[in-house]
Amino acid sequence: MSKPSIILVPGSFSFPELYDTVVNPIKGKGYEIKALHYPSVGLKTGPREGTPPTMYDDAAFIAKETEKLADEGKDVVIVAHSYGGVPTTESTKGLSKGEREKAGKKGGIVKLAYLTCLVPPVGTAAASMLADVPAENKINLKVGEDGWMRHEDIAPTAAIVFSDLPPEEGQAWIRSFSAHSAASFGSELTHPGYKDIPAAWLLCEKDLCIPAKTQREAIAMIEKISGTKVDVTSVQKDHVPHATEPELVVDWILKVVESV
């Protein structure tokens, strides 16, 4: 039996190269894996022209990449990090293996793997899920006239996002971040992809960006709507474990993939 293919959907502001710490070791295990650069992640500097992309643009991009693999008859596991959980969930309509089988097609999504994610109920946007984050953990972002968000307060942001790293290392990561479309955080989920696709979750207990409480509420919501248990792995890590302990994330992804 062939190995599932893996799509990795990064968090906000993040280029796919920032996940090489995870992608490269998994490739070395013989898996097909690709980290995506979706539309709402822009360039590092300068103003943007045109209407900023929404979460729906991101979801359409993810769906297109998924469909390519599915049309080749491949089973697909999508690993989403942080904001990536929202467009990933939205993108799955018609692409689950069960839906494709009913349509006489091979391949499709067999698992959703949420890595310390934002995963809202239908009718809710990413921004709404972050409303209850404690004030001391809220990240100061500047939204430009072009509609793109940028990090300006490097040191405090690094202390929140990369709380497990020494300050200078966390700040170096933040400086590698891109701009991100503000509109994407206001797009409400319309499709509950987790309803019919089995889900796994890496719950980072020390995450200051998406508190463990918010993650547990999302897990409970998924279990209620789907009627099935989410395969939860709880770890004492911050918001970006692929930076602080990539081996842990690699092992988790391989465990998820090998379980399908």
- In spatial order, strands of the major sheet run 2-1-3-4-8-9
Helix content: 25-40%
Number of DSSP E strands: 9
CATH superfamily: Alpha/Beta hydrolase fold, catalytic domain
Distance between the termini: 11 Å
Rg, nearest Å: 17 Å
Helix/strand structural class: alpha/beta
User: What's the total helix number?
Assistant: 10
Give the domain tally.
1
Tell me the CATH architecture: 3-Layer(aba) Sandwich
Assign the CATH class: Alpha Beta
Question: SSE string, helix = H, strand = E?
Answer: EHEHEHHEHEEHHEEHEHH
For the report, how would you describe the main beta sheet? 6 strands, parallel
CATH-derived topology: Rossmann fold
Overall form: globular
Mean pLDDT: 95
Low-confidence runs? none
Strand content: 15-25%
Task: Give the structure's gist in a few sentences.
This is Alpha/beta-hydrolase. It comes from Pleomassaria siparia CBS 279.74. The protein contains 10 helices and 9 strands.
Can you give a write-up of this model?
35% of the residues lie in helices and 17% in strands. The chain is α/β, with parallel strands linked by helices and 260 residues long. Strand 8, helix 8 (212-226) and strand 9 (231-235) form a beta-alpha-beta unit. It is globular and about 50 Å long. A six-stranded parallel sheet has the order 2-1-3-4-8-9, with helices on both faces. The chain has a three-stranded antiparallel sheet with strand order 5-6-7, with no helix packed on it. It has one domain (5-258): Alpha/Beta hydrolase fold, catalytic domain (Rossmann fold, 3-Layer(aba) Sandwich), CATH 3.40.50.1820. The mean pLDDT is 95. It is built from ten helices and nine strands.
